[in-house]
Amino acid sequence: MNRIKVKDLLTSTAFETTVLVKGWVRTKRGNKNVSFIALNDGSIIHNIQVVVDLSIISEDSIKNVTTGACIAVVGKIVSSQGKGQSVEIIAQSIELYGGSDPETYPLQKKGHSLEFLREIAHLRPRTNTFGAVLRIRHAMAFAVHKFFNDKGFCYIHTPIITGSDAEGAGAMFQVTSLDLNQLPKDSQGAIDYKQDFFGKPTNLTVSGQLEGELAAMALSEIYTFGPTFRAENSNTTRHLAEFWMIEPEVAFNELVDNMNLAEEFLKYLINYALQHCPDDLAFLNEMYDKELLERLKLVTNNDFQRVTYTEGVEILKNSGHKFEYKVEWGTDLQSEHERYLVEKHFKKPVILVDYPKDIKAFYMKMNEDGKTVRAMDVLFPGIGEIIGGSQREDDYDKLLTRIKQMNIHEEQLWWYLETRKFGSCPHAGFGLGFERLILFITGMANIRDVIPFPRTPMNAEF
Ligand code: 4AD
Ligand code: MG
């Protein structure tokens, strides 16, 4: 007999048919005559109720069917008499795959704190909360590919190990096969990277953008979707050391086209979640954040506010609000500033553009004023920056000047510079932090709770 998933079972009307269902026991309750087992297989947030007539299946034979155990049930589909479900199954036989000692199983009770669940990341996918988050995360990954595929973008796989630093921020994880206890030295006494695996120092990538640009200048419209790594020691609820980023890059796009694409993309993803994940979103709305669904609709139903950095700074300075960090033209905005603009001032998502050149990366296109660059950050309620992007500098001489001014190793970027020598063109792109998107869509408060196995400072257990 083929296994039927709980999701399909719950909407089945094939009453009296015998089926095989497999999953993990959430609860078992009952009396001397009958046992009720709530079974979940992760296909949907809801459980199927298995009714066990103890005069047919002995109580002793199911004594090890306890919370957390894995079982296979053959039974008959019936319409449910109980409240809260329309379908249940009457068990004919139950096979125990793996027991789960009630004395030691950590998820014995409901209502564990998210902090506790982080310590048992190997088991937390079995909770309703993480089941919901992981299904939504999957749906969003699929929607990302669908959005770009439907628009004719080409998915490009950019390298994870690189010899360059795309953001110039310097917080990278080094990759080496050298023996750290016996490092080879050159004649000057420095580490001899010629003997390293690649014959030079290499790192885990912080962004696929630079390689993405190379592909955009041949295929016109591309995107990347892969893991990126940052060794900053920021222990916040919005930073991970390993996170996934989606980076579209489009030849012939200017900043305004870039903004339009970002807004359309985010609205598409949120609408996709509203359409395809209603049960999981309803659960999260109920359990964690009663305004979640409203906030999602607020984003899809409103145009994003587009303002310059300079205007944003003026608004913050004139707000009369006391910020922890002072706002001055030329300094990077903190998330408290970004959130003030979004949540208090405009009350909708904001796209901030034209940032001072000194707080942004070398590759951004210079504006005529010589002080600002064609950067854009998309700011979201509860999150702050969800997207960072820009139009790229396409003029060879200007780009080289910026590289020199910012003390970036020109020799590492010769290949990037060549695209400005041969057939250069205006182009633009952005990066969406996948986990920040999932934070927003699920309403979870901590980025550690929207990725199965978070990598943060001092934490790489699983
Ligand atoms: O603003 P960032 O650093 O931009 C780039 O990396 C560009 N190369 C993107 C591009 O133009 N192609 O990062 C982009 C986004 C941020 O807006 C944020 O959502 C996310 O990546 N992000 C992080 N998410 C989790 N943990 C971190 N440590 C993150 N750093 C950035
Ligand atoms: Mg940024």
What's the helix and strand layout?
Layout: H1 6-10, E1 18-30, E2 34-40, E3 48-53, E4 70-79, E5 87-98, H2 114-119, H3 128-150, E6 154-155, E7 161-162, E8 174-175, E9 202-204, H4 209-219, E10 221-229, E11 242-251, H5 255-276, H6 278-287, H7 292-301, E12 305-308, H8 309-317, H9 335-346, E13 350-356, E14 372-380, E15 384-391, H10 396-405, H11 414-421, E16 427-433, H12 434-442
Parallel strand pairs: 3-5, 6-10, 12-13
Antiparallel strand pairs: 1-2, 1-4, 2-3, 4-5, 7-9, 8-9, 10-11, 11-16, 13-14, 14-15, 15-16
The structure holds 4-amino-1,4-dioxobutan-2-aminium adenosine-5'-monophosphate and magnesium ion.
Word description of this protein:
Helix 3 (128-150) packs across helix 5 and helix 3 (128-150) crosses helix 12. Helices cover 29% and strands 24% of the residues. The two termini are 36 Å apart. The longest helix has 23 residues, at 128-150. The chain has twelve helices and 16 strands. The strands form three sheets. Strands 6-10-11-16-15-14-13-12 form an eight-stranded mixed sheet, with helices on both faces. It has a five-stranded mixed beta barrel with strand order 1-2-3-5-4. Strands 7-9-8 form a three-stranded antiparallel sheet, with no helix packed on it. It is elongated and about 85 Å long. It is of the alpha+beta class. The protein has helices spanning 6-10, 114-119, 128-150, 209-219, 255-276, 278-287, 292-301, 309-317, 335-346, 396-405, 414-421, 434-442; strands at 18-30, 34-40, 48-53, 70-79, 87-98, 154-155, 161-162, 174-175, 202-204, 221-229, 242-251, 305-308, 350-356, 372-380, 384-391, 427-433. The site of magnesium ion has 2 residues, from strand 15. Magnesium ion is lined by residues 385, 388.
